[in-house]
Structure formats: structure tokens, C-alpha cells
Amino acid sequence: MGPVDARLLMVEDDERIRLALGLALADEGCEVLEAESGERALELLATASVDVVLLDLMLPGMDGLDVCRTLRARGDQPIIIVSARTDTSDVIAGLEAGADDYVTKPLVASELAARVRALLRRRHPDGGSPRALRLGDVEILPDEEVVRRGGAEVHLTRTEFGLLLELAQARGAVVSREDLLRRVWGYDYFGDTRLLDVHVRRLRRKVERDPDQPERVLTVRGRGYKAVGVE
Q1: Which of 103, 123, 143 marks a domain boundary?
Q2: Does a structural domain hold residue 199?
């Protein structure tokens, strides 16, 4: 793989990790800004533009989940949580807070760079965009990366938008979890589908009348997901 060529903000309170990971990511083609706390990260992001935020959860003062929620409330800033917490509840909490991806420590810089690369591809896809699609009263405008429901714009993160578009383009065909992970996140997750399932749940909250009784984005047990009523 080629260089990433991205500007990252690493939010990490352990100076040794910041130094080691920062040097390794620089070798992968990244420019790395550093923040030792959540408060400092929000300060930096008020004036600096970055491609992806690498966010630890266990921070002094404002914890990583609160930082993640704050950034998500501000917009669609790409966020990858990098944490030593591996329990399913922690992973789900991080994704529910709005993270696009979740990586556990210890990690290899090249793997993290691959995830950054995949996330940036979702922000800047190659090739032309398909025409507008509809799922009932939900309209998807790929060129503008806009989704409207009943005429009102619905705010989706870029990952949620990519997931909805992949399902809509399948036009009612079932898309396996593995294929969605590969197409939307850009690489294999080796059977770990927590990331996908949490994002589907978040997506349903935004495009379904009743997220607990979905009518547009359906689960096909043992196979994957499908979008119904695509026009």
C-alpha cells in the first residue's frame, strides 16, 4: 500500500505512546498533531483542520466518549477510537458515541494507517456517483452526499451515508455482513460484526419511522441486510 498522506490528531495522555505511534505514523505518510487531553483536543480542532481524529477513551478530565459525542454533535469529523478497552460493551459504547471505527491496543501502525486510508476513501470515493435513489420518503443524493426524509435533510455521518448507499444500490438484494464491512469500511473484520450492527442501529434511528420495527433497512437472519422499496 502507498502512503496515507493524511493529517491526524492523536488524543492520547501517555507520552510514550504518543511518541512511538507518532513516529510510526509519520513513516506511513501521516502528519500527526498531538493532544494529551480531551479539552486540548477540542481546543486544537477549533482552529486546526485534520482528516481523522485518533481518540483514546481513558483520558484525564473529559473522557474519550464525551469528546467523541462533542465532535459528532459538531459534524461528521472522522473518528477512530484507539483504546485498550476490548469488552463488547466498551466497543459498542464507543461506536454509539459516534466513532467510525474502533481499534484495540496494542496495535501496529501499519494496521492503523490502513484503517485511516479506508476511512479517507469513504470521504473521497473514486469514480462517478450514481443517480438519486429513494426508499419511500427517504431520498438519497449521492453527488451531494445528502439524505432527505419527507423533504427535510437528515444528518448522517459519512460512514452511515456509505452504508445506506451500499444497501440502496443493491436494490432489495441481501448484502452480507462481510461484503458490507469490505465495501464500506474497506477491509476485512475477521468475523467481528459489532461495528456494522451498531452502525445499522444508528442508521435506523435516522431513516426509519420506528427503529424497533424497521421498514426500509431490514435484517435477514443469518445472511445480512437489505434495503426494501428502492426506486
Answers
A1: 123
A2: yes
pLDDT of residue 36: 96
Query: What is this structure's pTM?
Result: 0.77
Distance CA 72, CA 133 (A): 26
Query: What's 132's DSSP letter?
Result: P
**Cα separation, 86 vs 104, whole angstroms:** 6
CB distance 135 to 206 below 8 Å: no
Tell me: the pLDDT tens digits for 96-151? Answer: 999 999 988 888 888 888 888 878 876 655 555 557 888 889 999 988 888 999 88
For residue 35, how far is the Cα from the chain centroid? 21
The reported pLDDT for the residue numbered 192 is 59
CATH number, position 24: 3.40.50.2300
**Residue 196 maps to a domain:** yes
SS3 143: coil
User: For residues 168 and 184, which has the higher predicted lDDT (pLDDT)?
Assistant: 168
pLDDT in tens, 170-182: 989 999 988 888 8
- Chain position carrying cell 500527526: 32
Q: For residues 10 and 116, state if they share a domain.
A: yes
CA distance 164 to 203: 8
Co-location of 108 and 151 in the same domain: no
Domains identified in the chain, total number = 2
Beta strands in the chain (DSSP E): 6-11, 30-35, 52-55, 79-83, 101-104, 133-135, 138-141, 146-149, 152-154, 175-176, 217-220, 224-227
| Residue 154: inside a domain | yes
Domain hosting residue 69, numbered range: 6-123
